[in-house]
DNA sequence: CTGAAAGCGCTAACAC
DNA sequence: GTGTTAGCGCTTTCAG
């Protein structure tokens, strides 16, 4: 059942059917109703390929994240999908993992699908900060379609970034721990991503402002994994002393809680622990964790709004948006 | 840059270029290399729309789930995407929510995108069991494209289902609690979905087999939410007595843990609690929860394998696959 | 092994 | 208001 069939059955030309389908005003009410009736009767759906061929657009946005099973990414994709859907856009999803080559492959693949725009979710796409070349593929992509980054910053034409103010967040959590008398705060991180670097800077700044030394051994590199973190802490516990833990992911913070449990260290009395992203883990834990809400919903909403302005109204939009985080205080840092 | 440009630059016809692109063997090695070189040089990508128009397929599968922010769905989508990607398929993702009308809309929308097949993730798409009409839209969709259900059962041509054996899982957890001397086991659930019904039947069967009565007041309807469940339990705690909790979602089980904490009931000594889906919550909690691993990865893997058999080899495939669950025992039921 | 040409279903410019 | 027609870029017979 195609446009020709509908035209024949309605006794009009395909042009008229096309007009009806696209809601053109230049059709008489009568013919319009007639065509609509025939369409409904025959359960007609326009062929998106044919349409796409002509318009070179399919109202589709490509979303790439490293791993949708991660609750942060999942939340982001949930927001993006639902709000894009309300604007009539579909989402093609790609989970690229963290490898440089895979990321590039995914970007190229989605680009070849003639997506209207590309969204990259997660700090990992912003490179490790050492090498500008790491992000060349994004600039390359941006020549073909606008690129939107969620929580990553990459410079270049046609690239738009929305980031949480991770610097400020870790600055404040650290300061708050210091205010409560913590002197050796462990900073737990797992990558050199853009946001990872911001978080570390915030931590360092707060220490510096308080006149505390920045100790290399308190920068604790681990994985975003409960068990791994717990075991690593246990392993280092003979030599490493700390009375506060600033985790850059909730799972690491939970690892610290589990560690404390094994060592019979009371949280938060003897050890303050704060998490990040305010995930379900933070409230599943006992005690419940203070955690940074990185305002992902705001980031995503802003991104989609900007995207629509750009795509449909050709408006100028901000290149870099920064959204403040909210520190959700539970018992583990304040007591 | 289209096929004509490449043809011209290579000094061949578009047919030859097309053959090269599609890996046809009827091209001389020499021309093939020539064309390949020109393609690479000009960074040529075939237009998917034009190709789709002719072939009426875009190697794309539609995935619908109620909410990708839910960790169970997210995990499923992660598995599906990665394994479909390895077969060269892309994923269009839709998050439909739980409303009947939204579900139908999403299905129709994806169908109109000429997806090669549709995957429905989650028990909610199997209806509430009362009304066959609820699932008519799925049978309707199946007339146009094969439909695969993850953890839901719907009868009909061209519909293929893969389910976890939830009945057996709750049967065994219940039995295990009974064996440990629990006499009043609270069954917590939140919906009349297909899997919800299976779970309840397993619970009832285990009670019956042990010669215990099935008490209506121990079938506790709540929401898949920690705080809500905790508060509901507190509210009913004056009248409701129980020494075991069989939750059909991890969040409910965590709610029970939080409730026990408020009431100073020791877990698992005084109260056994088991969760479901073996999510990150189960191990974030203190104590860590026994939980049912519903083998989502196996479900998804099987589904994709079958899908490929059907789509690419036209093979007959099983209509209903049932995968046994694994009960991951932690301290909360065994002690 | 290669080329010419007929669609695939739709949109939009152009006539009437 | 409505119809005619020329593409959009590719695949696929059918000839050679």
From TrEMBL, chains A, B:
This is LacI family DNA-binding transcriptional regulator. Pfam families: LacI, Peripla_BP_1. The keyword GTP-binding does not apply. PANTHER family: HTH-TYPE TRANSCRIPTIONAL REGULATOR GALS, LACI-RELATED TRANSCRIPTIONAL REPRESSOR. Keywords: DNA-binding, Transcription, Transcription regulation. GO terms for molecular function: DNA binding. Residues 1-55 form the HTH lacI-type domain.
